[in-house]
Amino acid sequence: MEGYAAAAGVVLAGVLLVTAAMMARRLIAPRAVTPAGRTTYESGVDPVGTGWAQSQIRYVAFAFLYVVFAVDAVYLFPWALVIRDPQLGAASLVEVVVFVGVIIVGLLHAARRGLLRWDLA
Predict the structure, then answer these.
(1) 5-41 burial, b if ≥16 CB within 10 A, otherwise e?
(2) What angle do CA 34, 36, 41 make, to 5 degrees?
(3) How confident is residue 18, by pLDDT bands cut at 50, 70 and 90?
(4) Do residues 51 and 101 make contact, with C-beta atoms less than 8 angstroms apart?
(5) pTM value?
(6) What is the pLDDT of residues 44-93, one digit of tens each?
(7) How many CA atoms lie within 13 A of 50 on its CB side?
(8) What angle do CA 103, 105, 110 make, to 5 degrees?
(9) Phi, psi of 45 (to 5 degrees)
(10) What's the pLDDT score for residue 28?
C-alpha cells in the first residue's frame, strides 16, 4: 500500500504544479491582443523572405552518428559497471552481444554511406 500512496502523492504533486503554473500564467499574461501580438516572429526577429528554406542533409548524418554513439554509451557503461555481478548470468551477456551487434550494423551502414570519413564538408 505504501507504493500506491507514494505514486498517488507524485501524481497529485504533478497535478498541483501544473495547476499552479496555469494559474500563474493567467495572472501574469497580458490579455489585450494587439496587431503586434498577432504577427509571427522567428526567435524574436521579424520574419524576412519566404517561409520555405532548404536544410542541409548532412545534419541528418551527424544526428544518426550521434544516436548510434550516445545509445552505445548510455547502455554499455552501466552494464560494464555491474558485469561482475554473479546474478547477471549468461542471459545478460547474450543481450549485450545482440545490442552490440545492432550497434555494429548501424556503424557498418554509416561506413557504407561514407559518414565516417573526415572530409564530409
Answers:
(1) eeeeeeeeeeeeeeeeeeeeeeeeeeeeeeeeeeeee
(2) 140
(3) very high
(4) no
(5) 0.46
(6) 666 666 667 676 777 777 787 888 888 888 888 888 877 777 787 777 88
(7) 3
(8) 95
(9) -115, 140
(10) 92
Q: How many residues make up the chain in this entry? A: 121
SS3 state of residue 45: strand
Distance of CA 101 to the CA centre of its chain: 23
Cell 555491474 locates to 82
Q: What grid cell was written down for 4?
A: 500506491
Angle subtended by helix axes 58-81 and 89-113, to nearest 10: 160
- Cα(19)–Cα(27) distance, integer angstroms: 12
What span, in angstroms and rounded, lies between the C-alpha atoms of 92 and 27? Answer: 54
